[in-house]
Amino acid sequence: MSVRGDIALLQKAAVAIVGARNASAAGRRMAETIAQDLGQAGLAIASGLARGIDTSAHRGALKTGTIAVLPAEVERVYPVENTPLYEAIIAQGAVIAELAPGTELKAQQFPRRNRLIAGLSLGVMVIEAAKHSGSLITARLALEEGREVFAVPGSPLDPRCHGSNDLIRQGATLTETAGDVLAELPAHFLAGYRAFGTAAAPPPEDRKVIEETKSYTSPADPVGSRSTIIEALGPSPVAVDELVRRCQLSPAVVASVLLELELEGRLERHAGQRVSLLTGAGLAG
Length: 285
Fold this sequence. Notes:
By secondary structure, the chain is an alpha/beta fold. Helices cover about 40% and strands about 15% of the residues.
């Protein structure tokens, strides 16, 4: 995986925001506002640098931290019109790509990009997605990996909203503000929690988890962190928050190492934010 920009941003808890390329003005405004509010709450925003919703989400989170995931190589901007935004993200955030330099851009690479967006994030929010759109692929991948799925409701008369409305019918969290997202995320990832809209403050038991999380320190040796996490994993699924407690590492470090293992094909994700080491993957760091 190649990275341009602030690689440390990949260790920050993130939420993905994706949606229609031909998004409405209201949808783009919603994406930018929610991205800005989630960023102020301490979360990074991941998206795919596409036109429409992706572009607005990146712009909303430029000052607080945004991650652009590209479908080909890290130097190839797509669409080209987003080159100024790409440069701004490199200066203030991070741009990542899974494929090697020189890789030709092909249609089949977009679902792979969507998988990476889902894997980077605690949850995926969909704003304006038609049926059979790439955004719904990202949402499905998020569900398969045990992530939360959020959807902003839209007019039933607008074909751009049929897919996102269907997600709500199937159980996605109906989302109108950043607070709706924060209320659903695991408390130990929200040490920087701020209330937005109708969201309530974390209950007492969640505040206790947050205070415990603040006492964790990110180790200076990332290789040591990786070895510690691998040793704590096995073929039986374990909850991510249990790994955080067991390894005494920050949630951001644990999330980053788990993503690395997943990209290497050594990790399997299960429902309920649980993970396991794939059989035959070994315990070596």
